[in-house]
Design a protein that fits this description.
Elements lengths: L15 E14 L2 E7 L4 E6 L6 H6 L8 E10 L14 E12 L17 H6 L1 H4 L3 H23 L3 E2 L17 E3 L7 E3 L5 H9 L4 E10 L10 E11 L3 H19 L4 E2 L6 E3 H8 L15 E2 L1 E5 L4 E3 L13 E3 L14 H4 L8 E6 L2 E8 L4 H10 L4 H5 L2 H6 L7 E4 L3 H8 L30 H7 L6
Parallel strand pairs: 3-5, 6-9, 11-13, 12-14
Antiparallel strand pairs: 1-2, 1-4, 2-3, 4-5, 7-8, 9-10, 10-19, 14-17, 15-16, 17-18, 18-19
The structure holds aspartic acid.
Length: about 475
């Protein structure tokens, strides 16, 4: 017999079916035992009456405990009006078991799976993440994540975007955070860097004539955790388009997310359509924030207040801790060093560069920065000027010679954006932290308690890489 989903039983009354899954709860009622059987789709009540079971099954019923994996054959029965369980998708039926097989036994889990209210501390949840993911809420977050990503992917394909994978073993990129480095064995003393974002690659794809690119892009930043930042890795919906104005980018992104919300989250309402646009200065003056929360009712879990913030200053005065690659001595790029200055402010670059405004756009949702982007510089004379203004040395400029070179061969005007996937889904799901949206995240202090990474490696591995540990 072919196994069916627990949720399919509602259409199979009086039929013999086979279901498989985990024991969610066991309830003993004298001779009768009720087993709630859980699979990815739902929970089904299985009624175990000894006289209805074959002999082998009768024997093993006493051993069955929560989280055992079972195969159950039986007949689907309609429940009477009074017995209907409105909380279950299968609440109108139950399965009268004829044959039970134990496919796997289970030890008592370190925390309860069936009781979501009694959550274990996060360290324990992360150590046993595969059990934590059995919780209905966590499973649901994974389901929604998949739905959102596949919706966006299809939407962009319909709009003629190409999904292109860019390298993970890459080069140090100037996104303003610390890089994760990977030592090269073949070229000793040299290092790859994991990309903080595929920024240069996507711009080079525009030079290559791909015109419309996107990627569900893994990004790696060695940052200390904050509520809306994850240490380690996260995903962006990375996008770039050629021959577009800032207006085109804003409109496309607005249309994409609005349609997504209407299709996948019909219960949610968008506070204002079209989305409000704020000037950076106005946002700071009025809300003292460049990512204001514009919800009318901050307690309404279904309100989504999208907004654009535009007209950012091209440069921001630098603090000590900002001085990573790309950040200058006295000022650094507000978004990144590839952001185009507003044409009318080009002259200010020579006189009062801190007053020059840029084509940066930030997408804000319920007080979070969902992502930023910009129209890029495609005139290398301006690019050089920006580098000079942020105090790039000749040596630093050399690091970008491939980029400089590429733009000599016909670079179209282009721009894009990169909204964070986890942040988006965190807000949609009303979760408080990004880890709830990630199957196997790192802790806030950048560890994986389950795999126990990062970990030491053998001396042989280090020797091969030409690396010696400092005492
Ligand atoms: N690469 C940028 C970032 O990670 C996004 C963009 O400018 O498209 O913030």
């Amino acid at each position: 017999m072919k196994r069916i989903k627990t949720t399919e039983t509602v259409n199979k009354i009086e039929e013999k079916v086979l279901v498989k899954g985990w024991v969610h709860v066991r309830r003993n009622m004298g001779k009768i035992v009720f087993l709630d059987l859980r699979d990815r789709w739902g929970i089904l009540q299985v009624v175990v009456v000894p006289s209805e079971l074959d002999e082998a099954s009768q024997e093993l019923v006493k051993d069955i405990r929560p989280e055992f994996v079972l195969s159950v054959e039986g007949v689907v029965q309609a429940r009477g009006e009074k017995q209907t369980n409105k909380d279950l998708a299968t609440g109108t039926v139950e399965l009268l078991a004829n044959k039970i097989e134990i496919l796997a036994e289970a030890e008592t889990p370190p925390f309860e799976i069936e009781n979501e209210d009694r959550q274990a501390n996060e360290e324990l949840r992360m150590k046993y993440r595969y059990l934590d993911l059995r919780h209905e809420r966590m499973k649901n977050n994974m389901v929604v994540r998949d739905k959102v990503i596949s919706y966006l992917r299809n939407w962009l394909h319909k709009e003629d975007f190409l999904e292109i994978q860019t390298p993970i073993l890459s080069k140090s990129t100037p996104e303003g955070a610390r890089d994760y480095l990977v030592p090269s064995r073949v070229h000793k003393g040299k290092f790859f860097a994991l990309p903080q974002a595929p920024q240069q690659y996507k711009q080079l794809l525009m030079v290559a004539g791909m015109e419309r690119y996107f990627q569900i892009a893994p990004c790696f930043r060695d940052e200390d955790a904050r509520a809306d930042r994850s240490p380690g890795e996260f995903y962006q919906l990375d996008m770039e388009m050629s021959f577009v104005s800032q207006e085109d980018i804003l409109q496309l992104v607005e249309k994409m997310f609005t349609e997504m919300v209407k299709e996948l989250f019909p219960e949610k309402k968008i506070t204002q359509e079209p989305w409000p646009r704020l000037n950076y200065e106005e946002a700071i003056k009025k809300y003292n924030s460049d990512k204001p929360d514009l919800r009318k009712d901050k307690n309404d879990p279904n309100e989504l207040a999208f907004a654009w913030v535009v007209n950012f200053p091209l440069f921001t005065p630098q603090t000590e801790e900002d001085k990573f690659h790309g950040a200058g001595d006295t000022m650094g790029p507000t978004h990144n060093m590839f952001t185009m200055v507003k044409e009318e402010d080009v002259e200010l670059l020579d006189k009062e560069p801190l007053k020059a405004r840029s084509y940066q756009h930030d997408l804000v949702l319920n007080g979070f920065e969902l992502g930023g982007g910009a129209v890029r510089i495609h005139d290398m004379k301006i690019q050089e000027k920006i580098w000079d203004l942020i105090g790039f040395t000749d040596k630093q400029k050399q690091e970008f010679k491939h980029y400089f070179e590429a733009f000599k061969y016909g670079a179209p005007p282009h721009g894009g954006i990169a909204p964070g996937i986890e942040r988006l889904i965190m807000i949609l799901q009303n979760e408080k932290n990004l880890r709830e949206i990630t199957a196997f995240p790192l802790t806030s202090d950048a560890r994986d308690p389950m795999m126990e990474s990062p970990s030491e490696v053998s001396k042989e591995q280090l020797d091969e890489l030409g690396i010696e540990m400092k005492k």
